């Protein structure tokens, strides 16, 4: 039985994304593969949710449903209170590979979505300059994607996604291909950017530490078919300053063990209060 311990009422407004008793099945020839079941999930404006789960549990399927690329087999999927009908400008997506247009410079890549929105040139320039500066690529704006490092490409992809001002950004293991130093630096930048913009971010990762550093709310998905097994506020969210220092924080080991044990199905999910008490007891 899935347990959602996160208190959705605390945000005080209707969730921007709402999934109720959602199921997802794929057809392969005569076979039906059920990949997600009993998914109840509300994403509130300003949440930075990290989704953890073993390979194949349905994380990307869930993201693709929220993005509007796939239709759930049953259940309810609402975006901003309305039935989800397909991809829309309120939802931006960043994948593991940056997927920049290889023939366009960084600024032209960012401009692409703004042209689609039919914004005038002066407005496009203002927005491009703002987001290129935010991700620290001002000096590199005229370079083509193949002239950028992996981290720079991902920052350009994030800027491109932010520039169209989606209300939610969905990120599917966006830093998985980066080396650890670049990854740490880009994690810090994303966290800072979230604080500055108060964007809603839904971020898939395999990395427990990445989730603890980035999220204000952590969700685990387990099993086959996958279902939500834990949905908690990150008790360390406001205590972390830099990506390098949080492993020394009191309560970190307890939280990490709780998440890993839940992912391995070794520990029954705990209530939010019990989790807080457990972390507090370690301090
Ligand atoms: N379009 C599809 N058609 C048929 N089966 C699919 C399709 N997409 C995904 N699947 C299957 O659904 C299951 C869940 O896949 P999904 O990519 O959602 O998992 P995941 O948790 O994101 O995995 P990973 O962490 O390895 O990326 C897998 O068994 C996969 O083979």
From TrEMBL:
It comes from the Bacteria. One of its GO terms (molecular function) is ATP binding. The keyword ATP-binding applies. Residues 17-248 form the ABC transporter domain. Transmembrane segments: none annotated. Pfam families: ABC_tran. Keywords: ATP-binding, Nucleotide-binding, Translocase, Transport. SMART domains: AAA. InterPro entries: AAA+_ATPase, ABC_transporter-like_ATP-bd, ABC_transporter-like_CS, ABC_transporter_ATP-bind, P-loop_NTPase. The keyword Translocase applies. This is ABC transporter ATP-binding protein. It comes from Metabacillus fastidiosus.
């Amino acid at each position: 039985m899935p347990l959602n311990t996160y208190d959705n009422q605390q945000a005080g407004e209707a969730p921007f994304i709402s999934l109720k008793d959602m199921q997802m099945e794929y057809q392969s020839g005569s076979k039906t593969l059920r990949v997600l079941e009993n998914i109840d999930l509300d994403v509130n404006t300003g949440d930075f949710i990290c989704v953890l789960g073993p390979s194949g549990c349905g994380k990307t399927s869930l993201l693709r449903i929220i993005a509007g690329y796939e239709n759930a087999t049953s259940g309810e999927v609402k975006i901003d209170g309305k039935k989800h009908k397909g991809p829309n400008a309120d939802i931006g997506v960043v994948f593991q590979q940056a997927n920049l247009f290889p023939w366009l410079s960084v600024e032209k890549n960012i401009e692409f979505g703004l042209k689609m929105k039919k914004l005038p040139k002066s407005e496009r320039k203002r927005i491009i300059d703002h987001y290129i500066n935010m991700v620290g690529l001002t000096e590199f704006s005229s370079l083509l994607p193949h002239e950028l490092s992996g981290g720079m490409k991902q920052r350009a992809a994030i800027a491109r996604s932010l520039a169209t001002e989606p209300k939610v950004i969905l990120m599917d293991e966006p830093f998985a291909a980066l080396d650890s130093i670049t990854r740490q630096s880009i994690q810090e930048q994303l966290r800072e950017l979230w604080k500055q913009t108060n964007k809603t971010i839904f971020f898939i990762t395999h990395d427990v530490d990445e989730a603890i550093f980035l999220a204000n709310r952590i969700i685990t998905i387990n099993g086959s078919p996958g279902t939500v097994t834990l949905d908690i506020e990150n008790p360390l969210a406001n205590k972390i300053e830099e990506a390098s220092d949080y492993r020394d924080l009191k309560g970190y080991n307890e939280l990490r063990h709780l998440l890993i044990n839940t992912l391995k199905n070794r520990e029954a999910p705990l209530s939010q209060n019990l989790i807080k008490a457990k972390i507090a007891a370690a301090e």
